[in-house]
UniProtKB/TrEMBL annotation:
SUPFAM superfamilies: Aromatic aminoacid monoxygenases, catalytic and oligomerization domains. This is Phenylalanine 4-monooxygenase. GO terms for molecular function: iron ion binding; oxidoreductase activity, acting on paired donors, with incorporation or reduction of molecular oxygen, reduced pteridine as one donor, and incorporation of one atom of oxygen. Gene3D superfamilies: 1.20.58.690, Aromatic amino acid hydroxylase. GO terms for biological process: aromatic amino acid metabolic process. Keywords: Iron, Metal-binding, Monooxygenase, Oxidoreductase. PROSITE patterns: BH4_AAA_HYDROXYL_2. Coiled coil: none annotated. Its cofactor is Fe(2+). Belongs to the biopterin-dependent aromatic amino acid hydroxylase family.
Length: 588
Protein backbone atom coordinates (compact mmCIF):
# COMPACT_ATOMS: atom_id res chain seq x y z
CA UNK A 1 0.00 0.00 0.00
CA UNK A 2 3.02 2.32 -0.09
CA UNK A 3 1.81 3.91 -3.31
CA UNK A 4 -1.31 5.13 -1.50
CA UNK A 5 0.87 7.28 0.71
CA UNK A 6 2.82 8.79 -2.17
CA UNK A 7 2.30 12.54 -1.79
CA UNK A 8 3.53 13.21 -5.32
CA UNK A 9 0.46 11.70 -6.95
CA UNK A 10 -1.32 14.35 -8.99
CA UNK A 11 -4.70 15.76 -8.02
CA UNK A 12 -7.74 14.14 -9.59
CA UNK A 13 -8.88 16.26 -12.60
CA UNK A 14 -12.43 16.29 -11.20
CA UNK A 15 -11.13 18.53 -8.39
CA UNK A 16 -9.47 20.90 -10.86
CA UNK A 17 -12.82 21.63 -12.55
CA UNK A 18 -14.65 22.50 -9.34
CA UNK A 19 -15.94 26.10 -9.24
CA UNK A 20 -14.25 28.54 -6.79
CA UNK A 21 -17.25 28.63 -4.44
CA UNK A 22 -16.72 24.90 -3.74
CA UNK A 23 -12.92 25.03 -3.70
CA UNK A 24 -13.13 27.48 -0.77
CA UNK A 25 -14.15 24.58 1.51
CA UNK A 26 -11.18 22.39 0.60
CA UNK A 27 -8.34 22.28 3.09
CA UNK A 28 -5.02 20.39 3.17
CA UNK A 29 -5.22 16.96 4.75
CA UNK A 30 -1.89 17.46 6.61
CA UNK A 31 -1.24 13.74 6.86
CA UNK A 32 1.68 14.27 9.25
CA UNK A 33 -0.79 15.61 11.84
CA UNK A 34 -2.24 12.13 12.40
CA UNK A 35 -0.75 10.74 15.58
CA UNK A 36 0.14 7.09 16.32
CA UNK A 37 -3.02 6.96 18.48
CA UNK A 38 -5.09 8.22 15.52
CA UNK A 39 -3.59 5.45 13.37
CA UNK A 40 -4.39 2.85 16.05
CA UNK A 41 -8.01 4.07 16.24
CA UNK A 42 -8.35 3.76 12.46
CA UNK A 43 -6.83 0.27 12.53
CA UNK A 44 -9.07 -0.97 15.36
CA UNK A 45 -12.27 0.35 13.76
CA UNK A 46 -11.38 -0.95 10.30
CA UNK A 47 -10.37 -4.40 11.50
CA UNK A 48 -13.51 -4.69 13.58
CA UNK A 49 -15.72 -3.32 10.80
CA UNK A 50 -14.34 -5.53 8.06
CA UNK A 51 -14.73 -8.57 10.29
CA UNK A 52 -18.34 -7.75 11.21
CA UNK A 53 -19.44 -6.06 7.99
CA UNK A 54 -18.29 -8.97 5.83
CA UNK A 55 -21.51 -10.56 7.10
CA UNK A 56 -23.75 -7.52 7.76
CA UNK A 57 -22.97 -5.10 4.90
CA UNK A 58 -24.11 -5.10 1.29
CA UNK A 59 -21.54 -6.96 -0.80
CA UNK A 60 -20.58 -3.71 -2.53
CA UNK A 61 -18.86 -2.60 0.69
CA UNK A 62 -16.09 -5.23 0.72
CA UNK A 63 -15.79 -5.12 -3.07
CA UNK A 64 -15.45 -1.35 -2.84
CA UNK A 65 -12.81 -1.50 -0.11
CA UNK A 66 -10.63 -3.53 -2.46
CA UNK A 67 -11.44 -1.36 -5.48
CA UNK A 68 -10.83 1.99 -3.75
CA UNK A 69 -7.61 0.72 -2.18
CA UNK A 70 -8.48 1.84 1.34
CA UNK A 71 -6.02 0.28 3.78
CA UNK A 72 -7.14 -1.40 6.98
CA UNK A 73 -3.84 -0.67 8.70
CA UNK A 74 -3.37 3.03 8.03
CA UNK A 75 -5.42 6.19 7.56
CA UNK A 76 -5.85 6.82 3.82
CA UNK A 77 -3.93 9.61 2.19
CA UNK A 78 -6.05 11.87 -0.02
CA UNK A 79 -3.48 11.83 -2.82
CA UNK A 80 -3.62 8.07 -3.03
CA UNK A 81 -7.40 7.96 -2.69
CA UNK A 82 -7.75 10.35 -5.63
CA UNK A 83 -5.50 8.27 -7.84
CA UNK A 84 -7.63 5.20 -7.20
CA UNK A 85 -11.05 6.92 -7.14
CA UNK A 86 -10.23 8.43 -10.54
CA UNK A 87 -10.57 4.93 -12.00
CA UNK A 88 -14.25 4.80 -10.95
CA UNK A 89 -14.97 8.38 -12.03
CA UNK A 90 -14.83 10.03 -8.60
CA UNK A 91 -12.53 12.20 -6.52
CA UNK A 92 -12.14 13.13 -2.84
CA UNK A 93 -11.34 16.37 -1.01
CA UNK A 94 -10.59 17.15 2.63
CA UNK A 95 -12.74 19.65 4.54
CA UNK A 96 -13.06 20.88 8.12
CA UNK A 97 -16.04 19.07 9.71
CA UNK A 98 -19.56 19.87 8.55
CA UNK A 99 -19.94 22.15 5.54
CA UNK A 100 -23.29 23.69 4.48
CA UNK A 101 -25.67 21.02 3.12
CA UNK A 102 -26.07 22.70 -0.30
CA UNK A 103 -22.27 22.74 -0.78
CA UNK A 104 -21.96 19.14 0.42
CA UNK A 105 -24.54 18.03 -2.15
CA UNK A 106 -23.07 20.12 -4.94
CA UNK A 107 -19.71 18.38 -4.45
CA UNK A 108 -21.58 15.09 -5.02
CA UNK A 109 -23.04 16.51 -8.24
CA UNK A 110 -19.44 16.92 -9.45
CA UNK A 111 -18.64 13.30 -8.45
CA UNK A 112 -16.47 14.56 -5.60
CA UNK A 113 -16.58 12.93 -2.17
CA UNK A 114 -16.23 15.34 0.75
CA UNK A 115 -14.08 13.91 3.55
CA UNK A 116 -13.73 15.50 6.98
CA UNK A 117 -10.03 14.82 7.47
CA UNK A 118 -10.01 14.83 11.28
CA UNK A 119 -10.36 11.52 13.09
CA UNK A 120 -12.38 10.74 16.20
CA UNK A 121 -10.60 10.57 19.51
CA UNK A 122 -10.15 7.22 21.24
CA UNK A 123 -12.92 8.02 23.74
CA UNK A 124 -15.43 8.20 20.83
CA UNK A 125 -14.16 5.17 18.95
CA UNK A 126 -17.63 3.62 18.56
CA UNK A 127 -19.56 6.69 17.47
CA UNK A 128 -18.73 10.34 16.89
CA UNK A 129 -21.23 13.18 16.45
CA UNK A 130 -18.75 14.91 14.15
CA UNK A 131 -17.93 13.80 10.60
CA UNK A 132 -14.46 12.26 10.42
CA UNK A 133 -12.22 10.34 8.04
CA UNK A 134 -13.47 7.00 9.33
CA UNK A 135 -17.05 7.98 8.54
CA UNK A 136 -16.27 9.50 5.16
CA UNK A 137 -13.30 7.47 3.93
CA UNK A 138 -14.29 4.06 5.24
CA UNK A 139 -18.05 4.66 5.02
CA UNK A 140 -18.83 6.60 1.84
CA UNK A 141 -15.88 5.75 -0.42
CA UNK A 142 -16.25 1.94 -0.71
CA UNK A 143 -19.95 2.01 -1.62
CA UNK A 144 -19.49 4.45 -4.52
CA UNK A 145 -17.59 1.71 -6.33
CA UNK A 146 -21.10 0.35 -7.05
CA UNK A 147 -22.05 2.16 -10.32
CA UNK A 148 -25.81 2.28 -9.65
CA UNK A 149 -25.31 3.69 -6.16
CA UNK A 150 -22.67 6.15 -7.40
CA UNK A 151 -25.14 7.50 -9.97
CA UNK A 152 -27.78 7.88 -7.23
CA UNK A 153 -25.27 9.86 -5.16
CA UNK A 154 -24.36 12.11 -8.11
CA UNK A 155 -28.00 12.69 -9.05
CA UNK A 156 -28.89 13.36 -5.43
CA UNK A 157 -26.23 16.06 -5.32
CA UNK A 158 -27.45 17.59 -8.56
CA UNK A 159 -31.03 17.86 -7.28
CA UNK A 160 -30.22 18.49 -3.62
CA UNK A 161 -28.01 21.52 -4.22
CA UNK A 162 -30.98 23.20 -5.94
CA UNK A 163 -33.27 22.68 -2.91
CA UNK A 164 -34.39 25.95 -1.35
CA UNK A 165 -33.42 26.50 2.29
CA UNK A 166 -35.31 28.54 4.86
CA UNK A 167 -33.66 31.45 6.63
CA UNK A 168 -33.47 29.25 9.77
CA UNK A 169 -31.74 26.31 8.09
CA UNK A 170 -28.33 27.96 8.08
CA UNK A 171 -28.69 28.97 11.73
CA UNK A 172 -29.43 25.34 12.61
CA UNK A 173 -26.48 24.14 10.52
CA UNK A 174 -24.09 26.41 12.45
CA UNK A 175 -25.52 25.28 15.81
CA UNK A 176 -25.26 21.56 14.90
CA UNK A 177 -21.72 22.09 13.60
CA UNK A 178 -20.73 23.79 16.85
CA UNK A 179 -22.34 21.02 18.95
CA UNK A 180 -20.57 18.26 17.03
CA UNK A 181 -17.22 20.05 17.49
CA UNK A 182 -17.74 20.54 21.24
CA UNK A 183 -18.86 16.93 21.75
CA UNK A 184 -15.86 15.56 19.87
CA UNK A 185 -13.31 17.88 21.52
CA UNK A 186 -11.40 16.77 24.61
CA UNK A 187 -12.49 17.96 28.05
CA UNK A 188 -15.34 20.19 26.89
CA UNK A 189 -17.26 21.33 30.02
CA UNK A 190 -20.70 19.69 30.25
CA UNK A 191 -22.20 23.14 30.72
CA UNK A 192 -20.88 24.33 27.34
CA UNK A 193 -22.30 21.25 25.61
CA UNK A 194 -25.65 21.61 27.39
CA UNK A 195 -25.91 25.26 26.35
CA UNK A 196 -25.48 24.46 22.64
CA UNK A 197 -27.72 21.38 22.94
CA UNK A 198 -30.48 23.64 24.24
CA UNK A 199 -29.91 26.02 21.33
CA UNK A 200 -30.14 23.14 18.81
CA UNK A 201 -33.23 21.79 20.54
CA UNK A 202 -34.90 25.21 20.50
CA UNK A 203 -34.12 25.75 16.82
CA UNK A 204 -35.35 22.29 15.85
CA UNK A 205 -38.65 22.88 17.64
CA UNK A 206 -39.14 26.31 16.07
CA UNK A 207 -38.19 25.76 12.44
CA UNK A 208 -41.73 26.22 11.16
CA UNK A 209 -42.75 24.41 7.98
CA UNK A 210 -39.75 22.34 6.80
CA UNK A 211 -37.94 23.73 3.77
CA UNK A 212 -37.06 21.73 0.67
CA UNK A 213 -33.50 21.49 1.95
CA UNK A 214 -34.67 20.14 5.31
CA UNK A 215 -36.79 17.49 3.58
CA UNK A 216 -34.15 16.38 1.10
CA UNK A 217 -31.57 16.27 3.91
CA UNK A 218 -33.86 13.79 5.64
CA UNK A 219 -33.83 11.61 2.51
CA UNK A 220 -30.03 11.89 2.41
CA UNK A 221 -29.77 10.88 6.06
CA UNK A 222 -32.05 7.84 5.79
CA UNK A 223 -30.28 6.56 2.65
CA UNK A 224 -26.71 7.76 2.11
CA UNK A 225 -25.92 7.99 5.83
CA UNK A 226 -28.14 5.45 7.57
CA UNK A 227 -29.62 3.28 4.84
CA UNK A 228 -30.32 -0.46 4.91
CA UNK A 229 -30.96 -2.56 1.80
CA UNK A 230 -32.87 -5.80 1.28
CA UNK A 231 -35.97 -6.54 3.33
CA UNK A 232 -36.97 -5.38 6.84
CA UNK A 233 -36.61 -9.01 7.95
CA UNK A 234 -33.18 -9.51 6.36
CA UNK A 235 -31.48 -6.14 5.80
CA UNK A 236 -27.87 -5.37 4.86
CA UNK A 237 -26.00 -2.14 5.63
CA UNK A 238 -24.99 0.40 2.99
CA UNK A 239 -25.28 3.79 4.80
CA UNK A 240 -21.93 5.40 5.61
CA UNK A 241 -22.94 6.35 9.16
CA UNK A 242 -23.55 2.69 9.96
CA UNK A 243 -20.56 1.37 8.00
CA UNK A 244 -18.26 3.62 10.04
CA UNK A 245 -19.76 3.03 13.49
CA UNK A 246 -18.63 -0.18 15.19
CA UNK A 247 -21.27 0.34 17.86
CA UNK A 248 -24.27 1.28 15.74
CA UNK A 249 -23.57 -1.17 12.90
CA UNK A 250 -24.15 -4.03 15.33
CA UNK A 251 -26.96 -2.38 17.31
CA UNK A 252 -28.93 -1.47 14.18
CA UNK A 253 -29.35 -5.15 13.34
CA UNK A 254 -31.10 -5.91 16.64
CA UNK A 255 -34.85 -5.76 17.25
CA UNK A 256 -34.28 -2.56 19.29
CA UNK A 257 -34.15 -0.66 15.99
CA UNK A 258 -37.35 -0.56 13.95
CA UNK A 259 -36.90 -1.43 10.24
CA UNK A 260 -39.30 0.47 7.93
CA UNK A 261 -39.72 -0.02 4.15
CA UNK A 262 -38.20 3.04 2.44
CA UNK A 263 -40.44 5.49 0.59
CA UNK A 264 -41.05 9.21 -0.05
CA UNK A 265 -42.50 9.64 3.47
CA UNK A 266 -38.94 9.34 4.84
CA UNK A 267 -38.49 12.98 3.78
CA UNK A 268 -40.73 13.98 6.69
CA UNK A 269 -38.91 11.90 9.34
CA UNK A 270 -36.56 14.08 11.40
CA UNK A 271 -33.26 12.80 12.86
CA UNK A 272 -30.90 13.68 15.70
CA UNK A 273 -27.34 13.73 14.44
CA UNK A 274 -25.82 13.39 17.91
CA UNK A 275 -27.59 10.13 18.90
CA UNK A 276 -27.99 6.58 17.54
CA UNK A 277 -31.12 6.20 15.42
CA UNK A 278 -34.19 4.39 16.86
CA UNK A 279 -35.52 3.45 13.40
CA UNK A 280 -34.04 2.89 9.96
CA UNK A 281 -35.40 2.61 6.42
CA UNK A 282 -34.82 -0.39 4.14
CA UNK A 283 -34.72 -0.02 0.35
CA UNK A 284 -35.27 -3.15 -1.75
CA UNK A 285 -32.40 -2.18 -4.10
CA UNK A 286 -30.31 0.81 -5.17
CA UNK A 287 -32.55 1.53 -8.19
CA UNK A 288 -35.50 2.21 -5.86
CA UNK A 289 -33.50 5.02 -4.19
CA UNK A 290 -33.47 6.89 -7.50
CA UNK A 291 -37.22 6.33 -7.97
CA UNK A 292 -37.99 7.97 -4.62
CA UNK A 293 -35.55 10.80 -5.33
CA UNK A 294 -37.27 11.60 -8.64
CA UNK A 295 -40.68 11.44 -6.96
CA UNK A 296 -39.49 13.94 -4.35
CA UNK A 297 -37.89 16.17 -7.01
CA UNK A 298 -41.28 16.44 -8.71
CA UNK A 299 -42.56 18.29 -5.61
CA UNK A 300 -39.68 20.79 -5.60
CA UNK A 301 -39.93 24.35 -6.91
CA UNK A 302 -37.11 23.32 -9.26
CA UNK A 303 -39.79 21.49 -11.28
CA UNK A 304 -43.03 23.15 -10.22
CA UNK A 305 -42.09 26.85 -10.35
CA UNK A 306 -45.17 29.09 -10.03
CA UNK A 307 -45.98 31.57 -7.26
CA UNK A 308 -45.36 28.87 -4.63
CA UNK A 309 -41.79 28.40 -5.85
CA UNK A 310 -41.13 32.12 -5.95
CA UNK A 311 -42.57 32.48 -2.44
CA UNK A 312 -40.10 29.83 -1.21
CA UNK A 313 -37.25 31.92 -2.62
CA UNK A 314 -38.58 35.07 -0.93
CA UNK A 315 -38.87 33.30 2.43
CA UNK A 316 -35.35 31.87 2.13
CA UNK A 317 -33.89 35.40 1.91
CA UNK A 318 -30.96 33.80 0.09
CA UNK A 319 -29.60 33.89 -3.43
CA UNK A 320 -31.87 31.96 -5.79
CA UNK A 321 -33.05 31.77 -9.38
CA UNK A 322 -36.47 32.05 -11.01
CA UNK A 323 -36.69 30.72 -14.55
CA UNK A 324 -39.36 31.96 -16.96
CA UNK A 325 -41.06 29.89 -19.65
CA UNK A 326 -38.76 31.39 -22.31
CA UNK A 327 -35.71 30.11 -20.41
CA UNK A 328 -34.74 33.55 -19.08
CA UNK A 329 -33.17 33.07 -15.64
CA UNK A 330 -33.29 35.80 -12.99
CA UNK A 331 -30.81 35.31 -10.13
CA UNK A 332 -30.77 37.36 -6.94
CA UNK A 333 -32.40 37.66 -3.53
CA UNK A 334 -36.14 37.79 -4.21
CA UNK A 335 -38.08 40.39 -2.34
CA UNK A 336 -41.64 40.53 -3.66
CA UNK A 337 -44.20 39.02 -6.01
CA UNK A 338 -47.55 40.27 -7.25
CA UNK A 339 -50.09 37.64 -8.26
CA UNK A 340 -53.33 37.60 -10.21
CA UNK A 341 -55.69 34.62 -10.24
CA UNK A 342 -52.98 32.30 -8.88
CA UNK A 343 -50.30 33.42 -11.35
CA UNK A 344 -47.27 35.67 -10.90
CA UNK A 345 -47.73 38.96 -12.71
CA UNK A 346 -44.69 40.81 -11.28
CA UNK A 347 -41.52 39.81 -9.41
CA UNK A 348 -38.82 41.88 -7.74
CA UNK A 349 -35.33 41.21 -6.37
CA UNK A 350 -33.27 43.33 -4.00
CA UNK A 351 -29.55 43.96 -4.33
CA UNK A 352 -27.21 42.55 -6.96
CA UNK A 353 -29.07 40.60 -9.65
CA UNK A 354 -28.00 38.87 -12.87
CA UNK A 355 -29.94 37.60 -15.90
CA UNK A 356 -28.92 34.43 -17.70
CA UNK A 357 -30.01 31.93 -20.31
CA UNK A 358 -29.02 28.24 -20.15
CA UNK A 359 -26.85 28.96 -17.06
CA UNK A 360 -24.84 31.58 -18.93
CA UNK A 361 -25.03 35.25 -17.98
CA UNK A 362 -26.51 37.48 -20.67
CA UNK A 363 -24.08 40.10 -21.94
CA UNK A 364 -24.86 43.42 -20.31
CA UNK A 365 -27.01 41.88 -17.58
CA UNK A 366 -24.60 41.04 -14.76
CA UNK A 367 -24.66 42.37 -11.22
CA UNK A 368 -22.87 45.56 -12.32
CA UNK A 369 -25.85 46.30 -14.58
CA UNK A 370 -28.45 45.42 -11.92
CA UNK A 371 -26.75 46.34 -8.61
CA UNK A 372 -29.91 47.43 -6.78
CA UNK A 373 -32.35 44.75 -7.83
CA UNK A 374 -34.45 43.84 -10.84
CA UNK A 375 -38.20 43.73 -11.43
CA UNK A 376 -40.29 42.57 -14.34
CA UNK A 377 -43.87 42.01 -15.34
CA UNK A 378 -44.66 38.52 -16.63
CA UNK A 379 -47.69 36.71 -17.97
CA UNK A 380 -50.15 37.55 -20.74
CA UNK A 381 -51.34 40.93 -21.98
CA UNK A 382 -54.93 41.92 -21.28
CA UNK A 383 -57.36 40.91 -24.00
CA UNK A 384 -54.69 39.14 -26.10
CA UNK A 385 -54.74 35.36 -26.06
CA UNK A 386 -51.30 35.08 -27.65
CA UNK A 387 -48.39 35.49 -25.21
CA UNK A 388 -45.51 37.76 -26.28
CA UNK A 389 -43.11 34.82 -26.30
CA UNK A 390 -45.33 32.95 -28.79
CA UNK A 391 -45.69 35.88 -31.19
CA UNK A 392 -44.10 35.64 -34.63
CA UNK A 393 -42.26 38.70 -36.04
CA UNK A 394 -45.48 39.45 -37.94
CA UNK A 395 -47.55 39.28 -34.70
CA UNK A 396 -45.08 41.51 -32.86
CA UNK A 397 -45.31 44.10 -35.60
CA UNK A 398 -49.12 43.92 -35.59
CA UNK A 399 -49.15 44.65 -31.86
CA UNK A 400 -46.48 47.36 -32.36
CA UNK A 401 -43.95 45.49 -30.21
CA UNK A 402 -40.80 46.41 -32.14
CA UNK A 403 -37.87 48.79 -32.02
CA UNK A 404 -38.59 52.52 -32.00
CA UNK A 405 -42.25 52.22 -31.02
CA UNK A 406 -43.63 54.05 -27.98
CA UNK A 407 -46.06 51.55 -26.54
CA UNK A 408 -48.29 50.77 -23.58
CA UNK A 409 -48.39 47.10 -22.51
CA UNK A 410 -51.20 46.22 -20.11
CA UNK A 411 -50.67 42.87 -18.40
CA UNK A 412 -53.31 40.75 -16.72
CA UNK A 413 -53.28 41.74 -13.05
CA UNK A 414 -53.10 45.49 -13.73
CA UNK A 415 -49.36 45.82 -14.30
CA UNK A 416 -48.76 48.44 -17.00
CA UNK A 417 -45.46 49.06 -18.85
CA UNK A 418 -45.25 52.32 -20.87
CA UNK A 419 -42.16 53.39 -22.81
CA UNK A 420 -40.20 53.40 -26.04
CA UNK A 421 -38.79 50.05 -27.17
CA UNK A 422 -35.03 50.18 -27.81
CA UNK A 423 -34.31 46.56 -28.70
CA UNK A 424 -35.12 42.94 -27.99
CA UNK A 425 -33.02 39.90 -27.01
CA UNK A 426 -33.88 36.48 -28.40
CA UNK A 427 -33.03 32.94 -27.27
CA UNK A 428 -31.56 30.18 -29.47
CA UNK A 429 -35.01 29.20 -30.69
CA UNK A 430 -35.66 32.77 -31.87
CA UNK A 431 -38.13 33.55 -29.08
CA UNK A 432 -37.87 37.00 -27.61
CA UNK A 433 -36.76 36.83 -23.94
CA UNK A 434 -36.05 40.50 -23.11
CA UNK A 435 -37.50 43.78 -24.34
CA UNK A 436 -35.54 46.91 -23.41
CA UNK A 437 -37.33 50.28 -22.96
CA UNK A 438 -36.21 53.85 -22.49
CA UNK A 439 -38.29 56.61 -20.91
CA UNK A 440 -40.25 53.83 -19.21
CA UNK A 441 -42.84 53.83 -16.44
CA UNK A 442 -44.16 50.65 -14.79
CA UNK A 443 -47.17 50.71 -12.47
CA UNK A 444 -49.39 48.28 -10.60
CA UNK A 445 -52.74 49.95 -10.02
CA UNK A 446 -51.81 53.16 -8.14
CA UNK A 447 -48.28 52.00 -7.25
CA UNK A 448 -45.19 53.11 -9.15
CA UNK A 449 -42.77 50.19 -9.78
CA UNK A 450 -40.32 51.83 -12.20
CA UNK A 451 -39.79 55.40 -13.36
CA UNK A 452 -37.92 56.86 -16.37
CA UNK A 453 -35.06 58.46 -14.40
CA UNK A 454 -33.94 54.99 -13.21
CA UNK A 455 -32.61 54.28 -16.71
CA UNK A 456 -33.34 51.51 -19.17
CA UNK A 457 -36.10 49.06 -18.22
CA UNK A 458 -35.61 45.44 -19.28
CA UNK A 459 -38.87 43.52 -19.49
CA UNK A 460 -38.34 39.79 -18.93
CA UNK A 461 -40.57 37.93 -21.36
CA UNK A 462 -42.38 34.84 -20.13
CA UNK A 463 -45.89 33.49 -19.55
CA UNK A 464 -45.01 32.00 -16.18
CA UNK A 465 -42.29 30.88 -13.78
CA UNK A 466 -41.42 27.30 -14.69
CA UNK A 467 -38.66 26.73 -12.12
CA UNK A 468 -37.30 28.23 -8.90
CA UNK A 469 -34.16 26.96 -7.22
CA UNK A 470 -31.41 27.80 -4.78
CA UNK A 471 -28.26 29.51 -6.02
CA UNK A 472 -27.49 31.50 -9.18
CA UNK A 473 -27.99 30.29 -12.75
CA UNK A 474 -24.41 31.24 -13.61
CA UNK A 475 -22.00 30.93 -10.68
CA UNK A 476 -19.63 33.35 -12.38
CA UNK A 477 -22.20 36.14 -11.91
CA UNK A 478 -21.65 36.35 -8.13
CA UNK A 479 -18.75 36.24 -5.71
CA UNK A 480 -19.60 33.23 -3.55
CA UNK A 481 -16.18 32.70 -2.01
CA UNK A 482 -16.89 34.34 1.33
CA UNK A 483 -18.02 31.44 3.53
CA UNK A 484 -16.72 31.69 7.08
CA UNK A 485 -17.85 28.94 9.48
CA UNK A 486 -18.98 30.15 12.89
CA UNK A 487 -16.87 27.50 14.63
CA UNK A 488 -13.54 25.77 13.98
CA UNK A 489 -12.60 22.16 14.74
CA UNK A 490 -10.79 21.90 18.10
CA UNK A 491 -7.52 19.96 17.97
CA UNK A 492 -6.38 17.61 20.75
CA UNK A 493 -4.11 19.27 23.28
CA UNK A 494 -0.46 18.25 23.58
CA UNK A 495 1.39 17.70 26.86
CA UNK A 496 4.35 15.62 28.04
CA UNK A 497 2.19 12.73 29.22
CA UNK A 498 0.25 12.62 25.97
CA UNK A 499 3.44 12.73 23.91
CA UNK A 500 4.91 9.89 25.92
CA UNK A 501 1.80 7.80 25.21
CA UNK A 502 2.05 8.69 21.51
CA UNK A 503 5.67 7.51 21.48
CA UNK A 504 4.61 4.16 22.97
CA UNK A 505 1.94 3.72 20.28
CA UNK A 506 4.55 4.59 17.65
CA UNK A 507 6.98 2.04 19.08
CA UNK A 508 4.38 -0.73 18.78
CA UNK A 509 3.50 0.38 15.26
CA UNK A 510 7.17 0.37 14.24
CA UNK A 511 7.77 -3.03 15.86
CA UNK A 512 4.80 -4.51 13.96
CA UNK A 513 6.19 -3.10 10.70
CA UNK A 514 9.68 -4.47 11.34
CA UNK A 515 11.30 -1.11 12.02
CA UNK A 516 13.82 -0.22 14.73
CA UNK A 517 12.20 0.99 17.94
CA UNK A 518 13.60 2.36 21.24
CA UNK A 519 11.13 0.24 23.25
CA UNK A 520 10.59 -3.50 23.09
CA UNK A 521 6.95 -4.60 23.64
CA UNK A 522 7.65 -5.60 27.27
CA UNK A 523 9.15 -2.19 28.00
CA UNK A 524 6.13 -0.50 26.42
CA UNK A 525 3.83 -2.60 28.60
CA UNK A 526 5.75 -1.72 31.79
CA UNK A 527 5.66 2.04 31.05
CA UNK A 528 2.00 1.79 30.08
CA UNK A 529 0.96 0.11 33.36
CA UNK A 530 2.89 2.61 35.39
CA UNK A 531 2.17 5.89 33.58
CA UNK A 532 -0.96 5.27 31.47
CA UNK A 533 -3.03 2.65 33.28
CA UNK A 534 -6.28 4.04 31.83
CA UNK A 535 -5.34 3.29 28.20
CA UNK A 536 -6.91 0.12 26.75
CA UNK A 537 -6.18 0.14 23.01
CA UNK A 538 -2.38 -0.14 23.22
CA UNK A 539 -2.53 -3.21 25.48
CA UNK A 540 -4.81 -4.81 22.87
CA UNK A 541 -2.20 -4.05 20.19
CA UNK A 542 0.53 -5.48 22.44
CA UNK A 543 -1.58 -8.61 22.93
CA UNK A 544 -1.74 -8.98 19.13
CA UNK A 545 2.07 -8.90 18.88
CA UNK A 546 2.49 -11.38 21.74
CA UNK A 547 -0.21 -13.68 20.30
CA UNK A 548 1.41 -13.67 16.84
CA UNK A 549 4.79 -14.54 18.40
CA UNK A 550 3.25 -17.35 20.53
CA UNK A 551 4.41 -15.69 23.76
CA UNK A 552 1.76 -17.16 26.05
CA UNK A 553 3.26 -15.78 29.27
CA UNK A 554 3.25 -12.20 27.91
CA UNK A 555 -0.29 -12.75 26.59
CA UNK A 556 -1.43 -13.79 30.06
CA UNK A 557 0.08 -10.70 31.71
CA UNK A 558 -1.68 -8.43 29.22
CA UNK A 559 -4.97 -10.32 29.67
CA UNK A 560 -4.78 -9.87 33.45
CA UNK A 561 -4.15 -6.13 33.00
CA UNK A 562 -7.06 -5.79 30.58
CA UNK A 563 -9.37 -7.79 32.86
CA UNK A 564 -8.62 -5.39 35.70
CA UNK A 565 -9.17 -2.42 33.36
CA UNK A 566 -12.53 -3.87 32.26
CA UNK A 567 -13.64 -4.16 35.90
CA UNK A 568 -12.55 -0.59 36.66
CA UNK A 569 -14.09 0.83 33.44
CA UNK A 570 -17.02 -1.43 32.55
CA UNK A 571 -17.99 0.77 29.57
CA UNK A 572 -14.77 -0.35 27.89
CA UNK A 573 -15.19 -4.06 28.56
CA UNK A 574 -16.94 -4.89 25.27
CA UNK A 575 -14.33 -2.97 23.24
CA UNK A 576 -11.52 -4.87 24.96
CA UNK A 577 -13.36 -8.19 24.60
CA UNK A 578 -14.07 -7.55 20.91
CA UNK A 579 -10.46 -6.57 20.25
CA UNK A 580 -9.10 -9.75 21.83
CA UNK A 581 -11.65 -11.98 20.12
CA UNK A 582 -10.84 -10.44 16.76
CA UNK A 583 -7.14 -11.27 17.23
CA UNK A 584 -7.86 -14.86 18.25
CA UNK A 585 -10.45 -15.49 15.53
CA UNK A 586 -8.33 -14.17 12.67
CA UNK A 587 -5.34 -16.32 13.69
CA UNK A 588 -7.25 -19.61 13.98
Amino acid sequence: MSEILDKNIESNPLIDRLPPHLKQYIKPQNYEDYTPINQAVWRYVMRKNVSYLSKAAHKSYLDGLKQTGISIDQIPNMYGMNRILKEIGWAAVAVDGFIPPAAFMEFQAYNVLVIASDIRQLEHIEYTPAPDIIHEGAGHAPIIANPEYAEYLRRFGEIGCKAISSAKDYELYEAVRKLSILKEAENTPEEAIREVEEQVDYLQKNMGKPSEMALIRNLHWWTVEYGLIGTPENPKIYGAGLLSSIGESAWCMTDAVEKIPYGPEAAHKEFDITKPQPQLYVTPDFAFLSEVLEEFANTMALRTGGPEGLQKLIESNNLGTAQLSTGLQISGVFDELITHKGKVTYLQTKGATALAYHEKELVGHGTLNHPKGYGTAIGKLKGINLAIEDMSPKDLKAYKIYEGEKIKLEFEGDVVVTGKIITGTRNLQGKIILISFEDCTVTHQERLLFKPEWGVYHLGVGKKITSAFSGPADFKSFDLTHHKPGSETIKASKNDKRQELESLYQAVRDYRNGKDTPFAPEAVFDILKKSHPEDWLLPVELYELAFDENRSEFCQKIEEHLKKLSEERPKLSHLIKDGLELIRSTRN
